[in-house]
Sequence to fold (403 residues):
Amino acid sequence: MLRESYTAIVERSQGLSHQFATEPYECGWASEAIFFVRTLETEGDIAGAILRVQISPDGIRWRDEGTSLTLTDDEVDFCKVRHFGNWLRVVGELPDGARMKAIIALSLKA
Amino acid sequence: MSDVEYHPSVQTRAVLNADPRLSKFDPLPRIIYHDDFNNGLRGWVELIGNYEDSLDSMLPEYADMRPPMLSSGTHWDTGTHGAMHGTYSLKLATRPRAGDISVSIKRVTWRHRGPIRLEAYFTFKPEASELQLAVNDVRAIGVLFDLQDDEYRWMPHWRYLNAMAGAPVRKWQFKRKREPLQTIGGRDETVSHFHLAPSGWEDVPNANQELCYNEIATKYNWYYLRMDLDLATRQITHLQCNDRIHDTTDVTPMMIPAMPNLYCMLNVAFWVETDIDKRAFLYVDSVLLSGAW
Fold:
């Protein structure tokens, strides 16, 4: 059986600043995931900012999973996660005065 | 060929009945696609607006229509609800912002300009984030076609307006009013129009229908939906949800002169809209598009 795969664009070119969280994404069918963050535009210094992967029992309540990614000066940053249950999201915080537009892609594989 | 005229042979019906995934449908002779979401998202994708050079050129209403998911219908109180058939359904989810809309679309083309029939089993619910009935939290769900032949782009729209501003409505509506085409970008190559705008909706005949919402947000009951069109006459020929069949005599689509690059287009889209600052979810267990040729 071919392994199912799907990439969801969970954030696309919305302005991100201060604290932010991607919308809950239900993906219990998948066993592995990569969050890709492609930076489109920035204001201020975002390098070094951290995005944390979160998991949830119900899509409503969230806890850090332990995986995180650190934004760099590269266009694309990513982190990998496995064994995550039924929902995934990332949360982040940018320094005061910093803003970014990004495409955050969640690449899933069964 | 309407539903009145097409009766499959005993042998054809027997073949359909032998497969539980198909026996709950009444397809026309050719199955164009049958999507059971236990087998992936099968070509259903987030709708995005047109753009040129920059995503910022998009009409703002189209900027964020949210990616579809494969849902097991899992809840904090009872765990996994599953789908009508199997575990997974197609799930559309809005952001938690009143008026937010999520739209998923599947894009094919037609090979014969004749009758087609869309059938689906679906349900909708608000996010179960409060211990309340929440029966008026989802504003609307709907289905639309985006079609084109040599003369016209035409767009049948059909929605169930569940509630508005916190008050129950429970009506099926259609929309023939066109929204203005707007030029996108600076090269004069691309236009866009937000056809799901809230104005211009009209009740279909015998519009009121109470659906089986059940009593809390984590109980799902699945509904049957059927929409027939005739691509030759550009008419909506049948609208049905469960046991309710609407007179379509005066139910007409949006009509637009044919546009470049869209010939033989046969797109189907589902959407859900929230009435309050809470996520609204539309679930589609399975969908079947069939045609007669």
